[in-house]
């Protein structure tokens, strides 16, 4: 079966990353419409920002079958590929863990928050930079330096808690950490289970069922699994269900790549089923990203699938990939694009204290500012990519 991806996958990745940078910048704005932001935890609702993270989980799953088949085509065995899955998961979980602890950083710590944030982000680049073959000796030294910085940042860390000063701990796993755990579960299932649709659908159904039982507090259905699932960092399995739907979509994509019109119909049908489930069960638990309800999970998965179907039509069938050329680096250097705003926040906002006039950060002007900011981040990502300065895990 062909392993080459068609353009729609790269475009949906780029769009998702661009929009993630955009919604993550909205906190610097004032007077933003509520529908653009995250809905409160107790609300039965979701804003535009609540759709982006699940879309990111979906594209992680979308890439798994292609990545694994490509490695198999190069002669790698399943144990070797599993080792890569473990290392990649550890990288994401580590970055997410450190970034999550930014939220509780104490003023009593040795270093100011902005300096600590800059140094951990620098360490991420040093450790996981995509070094060329000609720089393997330098790679060892720089990676060692990055690990040393990260260890030092862990040593000097102090966080706040209701019980006083605490050290690094997983209050949650951070965005990258949640992605890492979901990637680990779904990539492992795909590697050892193969691209058997019935098996993949069964795992998706299990994740949704588990998510539902947790929301209904029905341990009699999942008692033997609940502790195991949570000990694996999968929470209530909502993230894994979205990622697994991405895997399923990728397998369908590979099977029907010569019949794209048929694929679009199949994807639309799947989206309709997911929407029906999400809205039909909404009275049970509501739609909430913060609580990760099954309705939020399935509705967001449906929205992403429909978006992907549109991109298949535009990019793969009509050849409009150039429409999205300007944001292409967000899809090819995705992790780099995600991390760059941390430098901006720490250096320009926190350390130097540069703020745009309030009028440029309010209402429509603020939205335009955040859209332009995301574009600038993507363009810088593209410039760094040309200099071979990009992360790869």
Structural features, described:
Helices cover 68% and strands 2% of the residues. The protein is mostly helical. The protein has one domain. A two-stranded antiparallel ribbon has the order 1-2. The longest helix has 25 residues. It is globular and about 55 Å long.
List the helices and strands and how they pair.
Layout: H1 7-25, H2 49-73, H3 78-100, H4 113-128, H5 136-156, E1 159-161, E2 164-166, H6 174-193, H7 197-215, H8 219-231, H9 238-255, H10 260-280, H11 282-285, H12 294-317, H13 329-332, H14 334-351, H15 363-386
Antiparallel strand pairs: 1-2
Helix pairs in contact: 1-2, 1-12, 1-14, 1-15, 2-6, 2-9, 2-12, 3-4, 3-6, 4-5, 4-14, 6-9, 7-9, 9-12, 10-12, 14-15
Tell me the Rg in angstroms. Answer: 21 Å
What is the typical, i.e. mean, pLDDT?
92
- The number of distinct structural domains comes to 1
Helix-strand pattern, N to C? HHHHHEEHHHHHHHHHH
User: Terminal Cα separation, in Å?
Assistant: 25 Å
- Main beta sheet: strand number and arrangement? 2 strands, antiparallel
Shape: globular
- The portion of residues assigned to helices is 55-70%
- Alpha-beta classification: mainly alpha
- Spatial arrangement of strands, main beta sheet: 1-2
């Amino acid at each position: 079966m062909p392993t080459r991806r068609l353009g729609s996958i790269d475009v949906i990745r780029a769009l998702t990353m661009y929009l993630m940078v955009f919604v993550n910048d909205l906190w610097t704005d004032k007077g933003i419409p509520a529908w653009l932001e995250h809905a409160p935890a107790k609300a039965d609702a979701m804003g535009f920002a609540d759709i982006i993270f699940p879309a990111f989980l979906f594209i992680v799953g979308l890439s798994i079958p292609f990545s694994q088949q490509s490695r198999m085509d190069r002669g790698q065995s399943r144990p070797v590929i599993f080792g890569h899955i473990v290392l990649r998961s550890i990288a994401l979980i580590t970055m997410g863990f450190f970034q999550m602890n930014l939220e509780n950083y104490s003023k009593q710590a040795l270093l100011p928050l902005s300096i600590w944030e800059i140094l951990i982000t620098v360490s991420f680049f040093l450790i996981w930079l995509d070094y060329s073959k000609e720089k393997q000796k330098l790679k060892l030294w720089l990676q060692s330096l990055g690990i040393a910085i990260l260890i030092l940042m862990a040593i000097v860390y102090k966080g706040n808690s209701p019980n006083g000063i605490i050290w690094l701990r997983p209050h949650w796993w951070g965005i990258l950490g949640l992605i890492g755990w979901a990637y680990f579960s779904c990539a492992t299932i795909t590697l050892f289970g193969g691209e058997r649709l019935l098996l993949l659908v069964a795992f998706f159904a299990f994740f949704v069922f588990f998510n539902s039982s947790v929301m209904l507090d029905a341990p009699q259905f999942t008692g033997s699994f609940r502790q195991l699932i949570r000990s694996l960092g999968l929470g209530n399995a909502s993230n894994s269900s979205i990622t697994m739907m991405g895997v399923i979509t990728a397998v369908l994509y590979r099977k029907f790549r010569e019949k794209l019109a048929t694929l679009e119909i199949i994807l639309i049908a799947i989206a309709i089923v997911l929407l029906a489930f999400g809205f039909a069960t909404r009275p049970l638990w509501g739609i909430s990203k913060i609580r990760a309800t099954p309705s939020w999970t399935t509705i967001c998965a449906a929205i992403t699938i429909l978006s992907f179907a549109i991109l298949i039509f535009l990019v793969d069938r009509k050849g409009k990939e150039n429409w999205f050329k300007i944001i292409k680096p967000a899809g090819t250097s995705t992790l780099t694009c995600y991390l760059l705003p941390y430098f901006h926040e720490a250096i320009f906002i926190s350390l130097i204290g540069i703020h745009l006039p309030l009028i440029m950060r309010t209402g429509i002007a603020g939205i335009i500012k955040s859209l332009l900011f995301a574009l600038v981040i993507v363009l810088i990502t593209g410039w760094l990519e040309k200099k071979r300065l990009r992360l790869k895990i």
